[in-house]
Amino acid sequence: MDAIVPLLCLALLGYQLVILGAIIVSWFPLEPGSALEGVRNGLRTVTEPVLGPVRRALPPVRLGGMALDLSPIIVLIGLQVLQAIIC
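Given the sequence above, the corresponding structure tokens read:
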């Protein structure tokens, strides 16, 4: 049991970094077939199982002509709380 907690803490930190990477990559326009598009698709594959349900439950906030997706922020806060409890 003692060896599982540090691994779980490391996994939570790693997933937070993956979400942050997905956020940063989403800021850039990508050309189809580019290497960065492959990175974005990989990050989306890893993050969408968690972000998707949150996104469906909490639709984007409209800011004029833009929409702000709050799902990564909500998930990051949840991961921080979970990490504070476990680690």
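The chain has a mean pLDDT of 91. Try to locate this feature in the token string yourself.
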